[in-house]
């Protein structure tokens, strides 16, 4: 399979678009956790209950949405790993859900996980800073499902969930944000505690416990109880706007005070990506971050900034093995990663 065809088939179509503040905010996501009142929670769910509930939930959204259902037990470990790398399912669903499934839209901007930690995890994604838009879409899906089933809901506590940290709205709103300026100027370490005090958390690219590869961070709410969904999203948008302003200021300082050093850093990383024959995940992510910064500042003009979004996914272990057509040892993956990056950059330059 050619790389161009593989990219078209592998990368979610919503990722090829740009949204507001796409130079810094890569994506927005809203996730709603829900459970059904008439079934045991997932930890105690029986096989026949799980299958019956999967059908009910699927039918609840099929009238207005064309969604494909994938059963976890029918997917290979590699296929599940690819879905995790695309942020379409959680590692928990891939590894622990005996009767799990996911409903996906064609553009993959809608993902409904079934029998994960909760019965239902409704997830909507969009490029750039579009939290209000994805919340509206998630609420529409939520209403469609609730029209067919009865949710576990308490008048005082709100939506009941397996984990107490999700009780209330059941909402997790998050943005994926690229912050090389704040990292290089060593300001991020001062900003993170302030964000935490406001009830939000900064994590790595794959959420809790993951590393912030390539200066990409995930910012999301910690509190789900005591605030409305709209208030949580409004507060996160306000925080993100402030971070965007700090990041732009940091980039301006770097460009004005360390221009030649910054330009050298960008083009050294570009040289590594275009010439390496073997490259590990962490080094690739850092070099891609430097090149993306160079594109945003204007040092590099012949490459689209969306290439970072693509290559951060395409160079993950699952995708590399899918492209290769089978399992690869770590060193083989590093060799494949370097080759894929070189070929992708050459394809971009030719276009």
SS-derived structural category = alpha+beta
Q: Termini separation (Å)? A: 19 Å
Indicate the percent of residues in helices.
40-55%
List the quaternary state of the chains: single chain
Output the radius of gyration. 21 Å
Strand order of the largest sheet: 2-3-4-5-1-8-10-9
Q: List how many beta strands DSSP finds.
A: 10
For the biggest sheet, the summary is: 8 strands, antiparallel
Strand content: 15-25%
What is the ordering of alpha helices and beta strands?
A: HEHEHHEEEHEEEHHEEHHHHHH
Mean pLDDT: 89
Query: Number of helical runs?
Result: 13
Q: Which term fits the overall shape? A: globular
> Which ranges are low-confidence, i.e. pLDDT below 50, for 5 or more consecutive residues?
none
Give the secondary structure arrangement, pairings included:
Elements: H1 3-10, E1 25-34, H2 47-62, E2 67-71, H3 77-85, H4 91-96, E3 101-105, E4 110-114, E5 120-127, H5 131-146, E6 153-154, E7 158-159, E8 171-178, H6 180-184, H7 188-197, E9 200-203, E10 216-221, H8 229-257, H9 259-275, H10 281-297, H11 306-314, H12 317-324, H13 330-350
Helix pairs in contact: 2-5, 3-12, 8-9, 9-10, 10-11, 12-13
